[in-house]
Automatic annotation (TrEMBL):
The keyword Coiled coil does not apply. It comes from the Bacteria. This is Putative polysaccharide export protein, PEP-CTERM sytem-associated. Residues 126-207 form the SLBB domain. GO terms for molecular function: polysaccharide transmembrane transporter activity; porin activity. One of its GO terms (cellular component) is pore complex. GO terms for biological process: monoatomic ion transport. It is found in: Cell outer membrane.
């Protein structure tokens, strides 16, 4: 849980630095996303982890009094009947279910627990952020098989002032921050699907304003 929070802080701090040096990014010649990172197979190891703000439905087989929907608090903990505080953030639903079974076993015999996430917020390291000249800049929970085109549809496309072909994709690879050039004008306005790339959890897309 704490490692995920630290990663999220690092991403946010880096984002602030990048925004402060926006002119330098726009003028820097960046490489395109490499072919090995364009294919959807790079996403295969992704599993959703519970995040603060999520709503989870806890079902305990045969024990409706222990079942119900609960929110994950801002501190990453949740509370259920009989259990006041349990760390939830950073765990997959299955991992959280197994932890709950161990805790409920103190009170009931052989509990069987299922955890279903109803409302998705996503950890900072499992979100995709888009800022700048998008119609609706946002932080969006990453989903498997998500592409750049999917993201742009979700945020409503580019503004009239966007310099789409100078957009920058920031990606964390092996603990290192890398920057790639993406050509959103070619993708959205010209229909060049070759400019569509697969996204990864934690990606940040910066769309600069055009200079007239």
């Amino acid at each position: 849980m704490y490692s995920s929070s630290i990663k999220g802080f690092v991403i946010l701090a880096s984002l602030c630095i990048l925004l402060a040096s926006g002119c330098a990014i726009k003028n820097k010649k960046l490489p395109p996303v490499p072919p090995e990172q364009r294919d959807l197979t790079v996403q295969e190891g992704y599993f959703y982890e519970v995040a603060p703000g999520d709503s989870v439905n806890i079902f305990v087989w045969g024990l409706p009094e222990l079942s119900g929907s609960v929110p994950v608090r801002p501190d990453g903990m949740l509370t259920t009947p009989l259990i006041e505080d349990i760390p939830a953030s950073g765990k997959t639903p299955s991992q959280l279910a197994r932890d709950l079974e161990k805790l409920f076993a103190v009170y009931v015999r052989s509990p069987i627990v299922t955890v279903i996430v109803n409302g998705f917020v996503g950890l900072p390291t499992q979100q995709v952020r888009i800022i700048g000249e998008a119609m609706q800049p946002a932080a969006i929970p990453f989903r498997k098989h998500m592409t750049l085109l999917d993201l742009m549809i979700q945020v409503g496309g580019l503004t009239d002032f966007a310099s789409g072909n100078k957009s920058v994709l920031i990606r964390y690879d092996g603990g290192q921050q890398r920057q790639y050039s993406v050509r959103l004008d070619d993708l959205i306005r010209d229909g060049d699907i070759s400019q569509n790339v697969s996204l990864l959890p934690g990606d940040i897309l910066i769309i600069p304003e055009a200079w007239f």
